[in-house]
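Final report, Chapter 2: Outcomes

The project's central promise was a pipeline that accepts a single protein chain and returns its three-dimensional structure in a standardized token representation, suitable for archiving and comparison. That pipeline is now operational. To close this chapter, we reproduce one record exactly as it appears in the project archive, with the input sequence first and the structure output second.
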Amino acid sequence: EVQLVESGGGLVQPGGSLRLSCAASGFTFSSSAMSWVRQAPGKGLEWVSSIYSYISNTYYADSVKGRFTSSTDNAKNTLYLQMNSLKSEDTAVYYCAKDLGDYIDYWGQGTQVTVSS
């Protein structure tokens, strides 16, 4: 059974940092593409980042490029999202997802990130 469990969300002030984690199980993590997707209050889903660790490629939305870094620890089957210089517009529920390229086949339950003073 595929499971994706996010953690690390919380309340942070503008300009602050958070690191999200996504613990994966039930599939071959090291050869899978993984993505982060977020949903702000009252808005639709927004793709944030995709990482193809098996070919060392990572992609970011323009809105987070230079501030967010996605990485994996294949020994721990864990995906990370380091978020720096956070802005109020980064407030959202963040989901990790197993990505098949054309579509996402599994989602985590999400973790809330709130950026506010």
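Archive annotation: The first strand starts at residue 3 and ends at 7.
This record, like all others produced under the grant, will remain available to the consortium after the project formally closes.
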